[in-house]
Amino acid sequence: QRIKDAGGLFILMSQWSHALNQDREVSSIVGASAYSRLRIERQLLEYSTCDAILCPSRYVEESHIAEGLPRSKLIRIPYGVDCSRFSTLSREHPPEFKGKFHLLFVGSVIPRKGIQTILDACMIMPRGEIVLTLNGDPDASSWELIRRMRGPLLARGILVRVDPGPPERNLRWADALIHP
Are 92 and 71 in contact (CB under 8 A)? Predict the structure, then answer.
C-alpha cells in the first residue's frame, strides 16, 4: 500500500496459479492444506491491492480469472526469448550424443508438471536416436515412473537421462526445450 500511497504502481509477478487454486491442487496431492492461512491471506491482499498482475502463461492467467480477478488487471508476458534478437550458441554435442535428437525438459520432474505425459509422448515418437534429458530433481513417484519406462523407451532408441544440475550445460545442445 505504501507504494501506491507514494504515487507508484504496484505490479505483482505471479509465477504460479492463483493462491487458492494452487492450495487446492497441492492439497489434493498431499491430503492437507499445503500453505499457511497467513500466506494465503497475504497473497489475496496483494492481489486486491496491486495495480496489475504479470502472468507467465495462459494457465496462470485463467486461474486468476476463475478466482474472480478481472481480466483487465492481468497482463500475460510469456517466458521465452525473441530468437531474432539473440544469436545461437555453439551446438557442439558431447560425443556420446552426437547425431541424436535431444529433448530437454527443464523444471520440477513431478506428476503435476507432466512427466507422465512427456514419457508417454516419447513412447509414440518414431523410433530413432533420441536423448531425453530431465533437468530437474524427480520426486519419488516420478523416479519410479522413470525406472519403469526407461527399458521400453531404450528399446525404441530413446535414452532417458536425469540431470538435476544447472540447465545451461544442456541448453547449449538441446534441439527442443520443454518447460512446463
Answer: no
pLDDT in tens, 89-139: 556 667 777 788 889 999 889 888 888 888 998 888 877 788 999 998 898
Q: Which amino acid is at 59?
A: Y
Spatial neighbors of 67 by CB under 8 A, at least 6 apart, are 18, 20, 21
- Which among 144, 65, 117 has a CA at the least distance from the CA of 132? 117
Amino acid, res. 131: V
Helix 37-49 to helix 19-30 angle, to the nearest 10 degrees? 160
- C-alpha dihedral sign at 120, 125, 131, 133: negative
H or E segment and range at residue 11: strand 11-13
Residue 87 is predicted with a pLDDT of 58
**Contact 104/176 with Cβ under 8 angstroms?**
yes
The pTM score is 0.54
Q: Which residues contact 180 (CB under 8 A, 6 or more apart)?
A: 105, 107, 108, 113, 114
User: 3-class SS at 82?
Assistant: coil
Retrieve residue 106's grid coordinates.
Answer: 527443464
